[in-house]
């Protein structure tokens, strides 16, 4: 079992390095070969612990949250009772629930990570273009996200049970407002990432789309593809399709490159819009981004929001849906 234990320590080192790069520096998460993490008393609890400490799970909240009010770009402005000047989604509390299940054969396990995310959506706005003063709109929100992390057994030592499983792949994360207004229900239905080499990854069910941690060299049958890897200076394209109950064109943004020193939030342009004739609308969006940040582990998150979320001062007008895809910058 010495080989398996050493492999886990390599994983642990890369985990802590990535957490530091991605903006999390809680060294209490660091595994110790001689001692289990605090409060962990069995293999199942160890998997739950590492599922939430995993590099891609740990930074997903940062990828959908803001630290300041960012200016609104012209593409985001729509007709409404307010004219937004800047906005930000501020996460204040995240309650995490983990559920572990070991598959038949005792070689693979799945840990589902559910998060109840609450906070305040803030908009700095004015009533007309001629106004010289602004006011703040605050909309409390309650969202929920889910993702799955796949573990593989690499050991079977009773005295070092917390080293017996390591994460080898992750699903995408799917998040949504718990109770959106009926006329503002926005649902992502397809996401495409066109990588710099032209390869396209298409997702229609984020929590059932698994990306393998290729650099760990542990193959298994669940992963559909590898976690995308890109180099600084390369460009990529993201396309998204939504179905919405809003007659007003919804707003989509791509968040990526989030760390303590970098962040990018860019609006996605509407490519097409179709009235489905049943009170819903299908809209397709696209954006091209560049890999501008440093090497490390990151999330690219597509956030879809109803038009009234940004362009209405009614605090009940808030509806957001997001899918997050992990990626690695080499």
Shape: globular
Give helix and strand order, one letter per element, not per position: HHHHEEEEEEEEEEEEEEEEEHE
Number of strands: 18
- Major beta sheet, specifics? 13 strands, mixed
If helices are DSSP runs of H or I spanning 4 or more residues, what is the number of helices? Answer: 5
Which assembly state applies to the chains in this document?
Answer: single chain
Mean pLDDT: 81
Strand content: over 45%
Radius of gyration: 21 Å
Helical proportion, percent range: 10-25%
Structural class: mainly beta
Low-confidence stretches: 1-31
Beginning-to-end CA distance, first to last residue: 31 Å
Tally of domains: 1
Write the layout of secondary structure elements.
Layout: H1 2-22, H2 43-53, H3 55-58, H4 60-63, E1 70-71, E2 83-102, E3 108-126, E4 135-153, E5 165-171, E6 173-177, E7 186-194, E8 200-203, E9 210-212, E10 225-226, E11 229-230, E12 235-244, E13 251-256, E14 264-267, E15 269-275, E16 281-290, E17 296-305, H5 307-311, E18 320-329
Parallel strand pairs: 9-10, 11-18
Antiparallel strand pairs: 1-2, 2-3, 3-4, 4-5, 4-6, 5-9, 6-18, 7-8, 7-12, 12-16, 13-14, 13-17, 15-16, 17-18
């Amino acid at each position: 079992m010495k080989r398996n234990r050493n492999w886990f320590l390599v994983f642990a080192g890369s985990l802590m390095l990535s957490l530091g790069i991605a903006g999390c520096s809680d060294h209490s998460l660091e595994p110790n070969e001689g001692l289990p993490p605090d409060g962990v008393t069995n293999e199942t609890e160890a998997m739950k612990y590492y599922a939430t400490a995993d590099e891609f799970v740990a930074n997903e909240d940062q990828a959908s949250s803001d630290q300041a009010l960012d200016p609104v770009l012209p593409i985001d402005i729509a007709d409404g009772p307010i004219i937004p000047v800047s906005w930000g989604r501020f996460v204040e509390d995240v309650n995490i629930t983990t559920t572990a299940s070991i598959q038949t054969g005792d070689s693979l396990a799945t840990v589902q990570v559910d998060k109840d995310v609450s906070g305040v959506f803030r908009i700095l706005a004015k009533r007309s273009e001629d106004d010289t003063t602004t006011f703040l709109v605050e909309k409390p929100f309650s969202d929920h996200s889910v993702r799955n992390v796949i573990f593989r057994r690499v050991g079977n030592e009773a005295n070092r049970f917390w080293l017996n499983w390591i994460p080898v792949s992750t699903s995408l994360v799917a998040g949504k407002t718990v109770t959106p207004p009926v006329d503002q229900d926005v649902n992502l239905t397809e996401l495409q990432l066109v990588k710099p080499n032209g390869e396209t990854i298409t997702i229609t069910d984020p929590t059932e789309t698994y990306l393998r941690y290729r650099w760990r060299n542990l193959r298994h049958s669940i992963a559909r593809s590898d976690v995308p890897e890109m180099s600084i200076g390369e460009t990529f394209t993201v396309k998204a399709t939504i179905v919405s109950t809003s007659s007003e064109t919804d707003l989509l943004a791509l968040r990526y490159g989030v760390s303590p020193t970098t962040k990018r939030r860019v609006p996605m342009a509407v490519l097409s819009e179709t009235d489905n004739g049943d009170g819903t609308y299908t809209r397709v969006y696209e954006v091209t981004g560049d890999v501008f940040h440093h090497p490390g582990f990151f999330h690219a998150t597509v956030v879809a929001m109803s038009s009234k979320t940004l362009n209405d001062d009614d605090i009940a007008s808030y509806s957001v849906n997001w899918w997050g895809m992990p990626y690695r910058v080499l």
